[in-house]
Design brief:
This protein is an all-beta fold and 78 residues long. Helices cover 0% and strands 53% of the residues. The two termini are 26 Å apart.
């Protein structure tokens, strides 16, 4: 995709580090999909965490002084 999109996957803690190998309380299974919007010069970020009560979020982030910072939250689309 020529560096205009990326996906992150979070599994925390590692399955091997979990008691009994089952998910509990603070365990995280999540993914983000980031796509670059050239018109905005910013990244559109979709965060999905099906293991939590708040299962998704959409936001916009842009580079500021060599760091990626949130610009705004987008209305949730579930």
């Amino acid at each position: 995709m020529k560096e205009r999109a990326t996906q992150d996957l979070f599994i925390f803690p590692r399955r091997a580090d979990r008691p009994l190998g089952t998910a509990v309380g603070d365990d995280r299974y999540a993914t983000t999909i980031r796509t670059y919007d050239r018109r905005m010069d910013a990244w559109r970020v979709n965060f999905i965490n099906p293991a939590a009560d708040e299962t998704s979020a959409q936001l916009i982030a842009a580079a500021q002084e060599r760091e990626l910072k949130w610009k705004e939250n987008c209305p949730a689309v579930l």
